[in-house]
Amino acid sequence: MYGLQVLERIEANQRQNFTRFVVLARKAINVSDQVPAKTTLLMATGQQAGALVEALLVLRNHNLIMTRLESRPIHGNPWEEMFYLDIQANLESAEMQKALKELGDITRSMKVLGCYPSENVVPVDPT
């Protein structure tokens, strides 16, 4: 996987348990618009009532499908959380770009963590 050597295979004791790996790179990859893609965001909303709902409505209004939403505490800010979102869309798509602009306007902070193929895509040898 990514040219790495598997050091040890560990079978989980429960079928629903699985391990995820993250591939980090200094330079973003471009995902072809012909390949199903996901974009991962990190955002923090304001502390007012309905702030998260308002952000999620932006996705709905642009017909973007959220496949994951996780909250994590913001270190040093008690009772405040940031949110990780996976969105089923290519970062370069028009709807995603419009949604990012709107989210940037209504959230306290937002960062795109990356865009990547949402499925294992095996290159085809043209020969």
Describe this structure as you would to a colleague:
Pathway: Amino-acid biosynthesis; L-phenylalanine biosynthesis; phenylpyruvate from prephenate: step 1/1. This is prephenate dehydratase. Keywords: Amino-acid biosynthesis, Aromatic amino acid biosynthesis, Lyase, Phenylalanine biosynthesis. It comes from Escherichia coli. With 127 residues, the protein is α+β, with helices and mostly antiparallel strands. It has a domain at 45-117: ACT domain (Alpha-Beta Plaits, 2-Layer Sandwich), CATH 3.30.70. It has helices at 51-61, 94-106; strands at 37-44, 65-73, 81-88, 109-117. Strands 2-3-1-4 form a 4-stranded antiparallel beta sheet, with no helix packed on it. Helix 1 (51-61) packs antiparallel against helix 2 (94-106). The chain is globular and about 55 Å long. The mean pLDDT is 86.
